[in-house]
Amino acid sequence: MLTAIVMIDAIPARIPEVAETITAIRGVDEVYSVTGDNDLIAIVRVRNHDDLAGVIADGINKVDGVQRTQTHLAFRTYSSTELDRAFDLGLGD
């Protein structure tokens, strides 16, 4: 499974509509409206690189109102939930 974090710049007046449209693209798990240098961040999870190209290049980048994207590929996942589960001995609280 490949995970990509896609930073998205959108036309300000269209941010809610852009987020809704991106959320509907298959392979997009979550879309966040954020502060900072970008307007939205999408979390994309797909099986292979071809699927990644389809979701981002052929999907997100073609949404009306998207001005620019920057994609980061995840190498590893570190999650407090997963760490807690790994160290849980099943003894309860």
Report what the structure shows.
With 93 residues, this protein is an alpha+beta fold. 27% of the residues lie in helices and 32% in strands. It has one domain: 2-Layer Sandwich (Alpha-Beta Plaits). Strands 2-3-1-4 form a four-stranded antiparallel β-sheet. A hairpin with a 6-residue loop joins β2 and β3 (40-46). The longest helix is centred in the N-terminal third of the chain and has 9 residues, at 15-23. The protein is globular and about 50 Å long.
Quote the CATH topology. Answer: Alpha-Beta Plaits
Strand order of the largest sheet: 2-3-1-4
Largest sheet: 4 strands, antiparallel
User: Any idea what the radius of gyration is?
Assistant: 16 Å
Tally of individual helices: 3
User: What does the overall shape look like?
Assistant: globular
- Tally of discrete structural domains: 1
Overall structural class, as computed from helix and strand content, comes to alpha+beta
Distance between the termini: 34 Å
Pfam family, one: AsnC_trans_reg
Protein name: Lrp/AsnC ligand binding domain-containing protein
Domain Transcription regulator AsnC/Lrp ligand binding: 6-77
Organism: Flavimobilis rhizosphaerae
Summarize this structure as a short list of keywords or feature phrases:
93 residues; four-stranded antiparallel beta sheet; 3 helices; Alpha-Beta Plaits; Tscrpt_reg_AsnC/Lrp_C; alpha+beta; Lrp/AsnC ligand binding domain-containing protein; Dimeric_a/b-barrel; globular
Layout: helices, strands, pairs:
Elements: E1 2-10, H1 15-23, E2 28-33, E3 40-46, H2 49-56, E4 66-73, H3 80-87
